[in-house]
TrEMBL record:
PROSITE patterns: HTH_ICLR, ICLR_ED. The keyword Transcription applies. InterPro entries: GAF-like_dom_sf, HTH_MetabolicPath_Reg, Tscrpt_reg_IclR_C, Tscrpt_reg_IclR_N, WH-like_DNA-bd_sf, WH_DNA-bd_sf. Residues 62-245 form the IclR-ED domain. May be an activator protein for the gylABX operon. This is Glycerol operon regulatory protein. It comes from Streptomyces montanus. Gene3D superfamilies: 3.30.450.40, Winged helix-like DNA-binding domain superfamily/Winged helix DNA-binding domain. Residues 2-61 form the HTH iclR-type domain. It holds the Pfam family HTH_IclR. Keywords: Activator, DNA-binding, Glycerol metabolism, Transcription, Transcription regulation. GO terms for molecular function: DNA binding; DNA-binding transcription factor activity. One of its GO terms (biological process) is negative regulation of DNA-templated transcription.
Length: 254
């Protein structure tokens, strides 16, 4: 039975390359045409393959529906959390995960710093959208008309002297973030807190979440925190690969 399942599943990558006839499927699997036909009929009954009028087979619509459903039900927090924990173990600083929903950027996970000085941030709490590194990453990925419309309706509170003051400055910052692929908040929300972040991307390359490492000046300087950027980006890329299905799931270190 396991061999039959293996052969059936092997047909799907073949058809992903383009339509194939019965002989091509049989040759790829190394089986008789009658065996290949039985497998194709079973896949056809489940909507995973479709027989065209020219008698060639292609991937069925049901397969795409299942793939879309799987993507929609992926829990980015569950996938990202072990990676965030490992990053926290390596650097010791606070690690955040955030998503963009209905005009707000929300923290959906947090791993606390090992240092006595803690950040006041909570899971489920909106971030300071005009200054936070995670917000810049998420908003920079929006289509330009949407970015401009959002920037025009936002308020720009001057939390500190380094806060972004207005829509033109915010759009310029988002353009830079979009180009470089990472973001910072160096005292823009709180004078004493610095942050560096990177995007997490889905199968289509769009940003689905953003993660960051934050630390107060009394623990590390802004320049010292910026040296962690390669590590932060590697972590975000690892989460992206796992989320998009191009890397195997890895359990968190014990």
């Amino acid at each position: 039975m396991s061999q039959t399942v293996d052969r059936a599943l092997s047909i799907l990558p073949l058809l992903a390359e383009g339509p194939a006839d019965l002989g091509q499927v049989a040759d790829r699997l190394g089986v008789h045409k009658s065996t290949a036909l039985r497998l194709l009929r079973t896949l056809h009954e489940h909507g995973l393959v479709y027989r065209q009028s020219d008698q060639r087979y292609r991937l069925g619509a049901r397969l795409f529906a299942l793939a879309q459903e799987a993507v929609e039900n992926l829990d980015i927090r569950e996938i990202a959390h072990p990676h965030l924990v490992r990053l926290n173990e390596e650097c010791g600083h606070t690690v955040h995960l955030a998503v963009y929903e209905e005009g707000e950027v929300l923290y959906i996970d947090k791993v606390e710093s090992r240092y006595p000085v803690r950040m006041y941030s909570r899971i489920g709490k909106p971030v300071a959208i005009t200054v936070a590194a995670v917000a810049k990453l998420l908003l920079a990925d929006l289509p330009e008309p949407e970015r401009r419309a959002l920037a025009d309706k936002l308020d720009y509170p001057m939390y500190t002297a380094r806060s972004i003051p207005n829509a033109p400055a915010f759009l310029k910052e988002l353009a830079a973030v979009r180009e470089q692929g990472w973001a910072t908040d160096l005292g823009g929300h709180e004078e004493s807190i610095n942050c560096v972040g990177a995007p997490i991307r889905g199968t289509d390359g769009r940003v689905v979440a953003a993660m960051s490492v934050s630390a107060p000046n009394v623990v590390v300087t802004a320049d010292e925190l910026l040296t962690l950027l390669p590590l932060v980006r590697r972590t975000a890329e690892a989460i992206s690969r796992e989320y998009s299905g191009t890397a195997p799931h890895k359990e968190a270190s014990s």
